[in-house]
Amino acid sequence: MGKISELHYNLDSRIFKQIDVLKNSYFYNKYLELLNSLQNDTKIVINQIIVLTTILSPLFLVFILFLSNYSFKRSVQLKAQTYQTARKIFDLDREIQQNKRLVLADQTIQNTNDLEQKIREIATINKIKLDNLIIENGKSLTVAGSYSHISEEVNFVKFSINDLVQFMQNLVTQQKIKITAVTIRKEESNQLLKGKFHISHYGQLSNTIDQVNSERME
Predict the structure, then answer these.
(1) Sign of the four-CA dihedral 124, 176, 166, 157
(2) pTM over 0.85
(3) Which of 43, 60, 138, 216 falls between 20 and 30 A from 31, CA-CA?
(4) Domain containing residue 122
């Protein structure tokens, strides 16, 4: 409010200075001569119009400046919001690129059959009998047209604690498989473990990888 009052005062000062200059001008004297030749009612109307114009002009100018200032601030705020949004998108994309290697497997797995083959290979390396594994309820989805999401349910029997820990660890480290919903029970007959767990695998589709590599070569 202080700035507006100061602006109003400056405008008033300038206007009154211009009025003083006008009073001493040739055109103003001619105006007075014309005004004196008019009837009293006409003089009153003209004087009232001049007074109203003199009073309202500074207010009108202040209003115009206020609208201009508001529009400018709004434009600055909009640009700032646009910049912040673009910055967030850029930071999010950079974070995704940095974390992609932590989520996506290095080797391409296209479908449930490929994933089941990888699981059996890991089990064989860990010297686990394949008869003690049952892989079922496989589902495969394409995410955003570039990535695959494959889920399976792994049932196991006759596992020692060391077998289970090593097997799960290799699934996670070698194929970046996510393991959830683990159910474990001990078999009374042989004191070995049986149970099941759910796995999820995220990978980049091979056609997307080939496209990215060709773009890099170009």
Answers:
(1) negative
(2) no
(3) 60
(4) 112-212
